[in-house]
Amino acid sequence: MTAAAIQARSAPTPRPNADQVREILIVDDHPLMCDALALTLKISFGLKNVRTARSLAGAVDQIRAQGAPDAVILDLNLPDARGAEGIVTLRRQLPGVPITMISADLEGAMISAAMAAGAQGYISKSLSREALVDSLRRMWDGELVTPEGYSADAGNADDEARAELARRFSSLTPQQMKILRLICQGKANKEISYELSIAEATVKTHITAIMSKINARRRTQAVLLANSIRLFEAG
């Protein structure tokens, strides 16, 4: 990412360095992966408490109940979130906390989308223990870390514009994010009303707010903007 893009997304509040990270939240729906990662972090960083969540909604609820962790490790594909949505949602709640995306998907466009959305780094699930620990330590010390061989130019060259767009999406409320997801699935207002058990007039009010926040004039434009940063789709 460019220096301007990095400066634009600088955390508004101080955050700990690697030696000060004491509480981590792992968001991953695979129990074995989650447990193995938690054990690795406890041993490698001397951590006593590693929190886990199986879904994005579970992570959000846990953060509200238990407070912000010092760092987050987030799986790309969750039961209730795919693509950059997890980063965008958690970045809204945790503006000063480093969030690491972890995945077996190393497609350049997906990495670019995650980094533009505010990830501190993007790492492969196939990393060795030593490489994983080294990558996390560098991220927690403030470095932006991406897979070896990745080039920002391989995805969308306009990182700053994508980062700004991700910030606009992060201003959506959870309900507005649900409605936008359904819009991207091609649902009509009446279908959204039925699925979310809210009045159709309420759906229209939310859509008006969504369009204003992301600076879109039509539903098709909103879908294109969401797709441009891989908000709901990983592949």
UniProtKB/TrEMBL annotation:
Q: Which InterPro entries match?
A: CheY-like_superfamily (IPR011006), EvgA-like (IPR051015), NreC/VraR/RcsB-like_REC (IPR058245), Sig_transdc_resp-reg_C-effctor (IPR016032), Sig_transdc_resp-reg_receiver (IPR001789), Tscrpt_reg_LuxR_C (IPR000792)
**Where in the numbering of this chain does the Response regulatory domain appear?**
23-140
Superkingdom, natural source = Bacteria
Q: Which Gene3D superfamilies match?
A: 3.40.50.2300
Q: Which residues form the HTH luxR-type domain?
A: 165-230
- What is a biological process (GO) this protein takes part in? phosphorelay signal transduction system
Q: Per UniProt, what is one GO molecular function of this protein? A: DNA binding
- Mark the residues carrying the PTM 4-aspartylphosphate: 75
Q: What is this protein called?
A: DNA-binding response regulator
